[in-house]
Amino acid sequence: MTIKRQIINDGFRISQEKMETGWNMPFTHYHPASEIYILETGERTVNIGETFYLTSAHDAALFLSNVPHSSSGTTPFSGICIHFSEAYLHLYFRKYATSQLMKCFQTPILHLSDTDFKCIKEIANCFKDYEADNYLKLATILNILCRSQAPKDAKQPADEHWRNKASEIIEYTEHNYTSIQHVSDISNALNTSEGYVYSVFQEHYKVSPKKYVTELKLHHICHLLEYSSKSIKELSDLAGFHCYEHFLRTFKKNMGCTPTEYRKNWEQTASRG
C-alpha cells in the first residue's frame, strides 16, 4: 500500500469533522506531529503500523509522530482531530512532565467516559489558534487520556478479525474471479475497504489484487484451451475477460505466445505423448 508523508505544523491545533457517508483514506500516511483522533459518532477501522483496530464512539486513536496510519469505514462518522509536537510541550513543561503527559501514547486505542469526552469536546468547540492558554488545554486533554482505559476485549487489536477477513477475501476472489473486474467488486461484496484488499494480497502474495485475479483467469483459460474445442473468443468470456482485445494483449504479455499458438503447442505435445 502507498505510504505518503504529510506536513502538519509543529505547534498545536484542534479541528473537527463530520462525514455524512463512509470514507476510506486512499493511502497510509505519517507526519512529524503526534496525532489524537477521537471518534464522536460512527465506527472506523484504524490501521496503525501493521495492526488493525475496530473503533467506535468515544474511542481515541493515538499516533506518535512519523508512525504510518490510516482509517476506513462504511458508516457516517464525526470526530475530533488533535495535532501537536513534543517540541510544543517542551516550550511549556519540563522534560519529566512532558514524558508523563506522553505516557497515554503507550496504548494506541483508548476509550473515554462520557464525562471525559464532553470535557474534550468543550475544549475543541472553543479552541482558537495561538491563544495564550492553549498549552493548558493540551495538557488537560493528555491528562484525561492518561487516566483512560483501553476498550473492552471486543475493541482490542482486531488481528483475529482481520485474519478471518483476509481469508474471506482470498476465498471470495478464488471462487468469483471470473466475475471480478475491479478491486471494488471485492471490497463491496465483503463490506471492507479497497485499501485493505490491496494490503491482503500484498502481504500474502506480494502482488496487487488485479495481478492475482489476472493470473487466476489466465490459468483458467489455459486449462480451457487444452481441453475445450470452443472458440478462443468464447473461452475468454468464460474466463472472465470481457474485452477480447485486452485479453489477447494480456495473454501474449504473460504467456509469451498467442492463445492460438498455446493451443497448437499443447495439441502437438499431447499427440506426441
TrEMBL record:
HTH araC/xylS-type domain mapped to chain residues: 167-265
Protein keywords: DNA-binding, Transcription, Transcription regulation
Entry keyword annotation includes Transcription: yes
Lineage: superkingdom: Bacteria
Nucleotide-binding listed as a keyword: no
Alphabetized SUPFAM superfamilies for the sequence: Homeodomain-like (SSF46689), Regulatory protein AraC (SSF51215)
GO molecular function: DNA-binding transcription factor activity; sequence-specific DNA binding
Pfam families listed in its UniProt record: AraC_binding (PF02311), HTH_18 (PF12833)
Protein name: AraC family transcriptional regulator
Lineage: Bacteria, Bacillati, Bacillota, Clostridia, Lachnospirales
